[in-house]
Amino acid sequence: MIVLGFLSYNDGYLKIPNKELMIEFEKALRDKSFGYVSEIIENSRTMLKATVNKDTETVEKILHDIHNSEIPILQYNDENSLSCVITLAYLSARDTYRVEREEKTGKGYADFTFHPRRKNDTAFIVELKKDEAAEVAINQIREKEYIQKFKAENEGKEVLAVAICYDSKKKEHYCKIEEI
After folding, report:
1. Are 39 and 14 within one domain?
2. Which structural domain range is residue 21 located in?
3. Residue pLDDT tens, the chain, 180 long
4. DSSP 8-state code for residue 50
5. Is residue 13 domain-shared with residue 71, that is, in the same domain?
6. Regarding beta strands 13-15 and 8-10, do their DSSP bridges make them parallel or antiparallel, or are they unpaired?
7. Are residues 25 and 39 in the same domain?
């Protein structure tokens, strides 16, 4: 495909240089006949919209579905396992956000940071907790001043604190989203 000019590879990225082929590829990804891949992509778009719209119910449902379909229950026992679910849940966010894992910011390291590439998109910080209340994660974002890096990039704009928690006894995800 590269030799024929349908794909290019540069700086670690695979690209489709032909606009018409890119449009057809995007159509295929949206097409239900493309299978499970189209479902993952659509769920990740829904996840991003739900987060920005502070729709915690939808966020919790998507996390629950990904957890049940992708992660073996016996291995889902720490924040690292939860971060794998988050990575899959926000897969499409990489199109419009610079997503950082364990980014140094403020007085510590935020689990995930989402820096918008477009001016009108909402920046957000995700903190993960296992067997703790969502308020603990929100308080950590505030107390450790994770917003510091976002102040210059998003002057005068909304930044969201997103707490995503997993209760290992109830096998449930919980989400809380606040503007900071």
Report:
1. no
2. 1-30
3. 555 556 666 655 566 766 777 777 667 666 666 566 667 888 899 999 999 999 999 999 999 988 887 765 545 566 777 888 898 899 889 989 999 999 999 999 999 999 998 888 999 999 999 999 999 999 999 999 999 888 878 788 889 999 999 998 898 999 999 999
4. H
5. no
6. antiparallel
7. no
Short-list 77, 76, 79, 48, CA closest to 62 = 48
Give 26's DSSP letter. H
The helix/strand/coil state of 178 is: strand
**Length of the chain, in residues:** 180
Distances 175 to 72, 129, 143, 153 between C-alpha atoms, Å = 21, 10, 19, 25
Give the C-alpha separation, 145 to 76, whole Å: 29
Secondary structure (DSSP) of 104-158? EETTEEEEEEEEESSTTSPEEEEEEEESS-HHHHHHHHHHTTTTHHHHHHTTTS-
Domain holding 96: CATH number?
3.40.1350
Do 60 and 123 share a domain, yes or no? yes
Beta-carbon contacts of 143 under 8 Å, excluding residues fewer than 6 positions away, are 107
Three-state DSSP class for 95? Answer: helix
Instruction: Give this prediction's pTM.
Output: 0.78
Same-domain check for residues 23 and 74: no
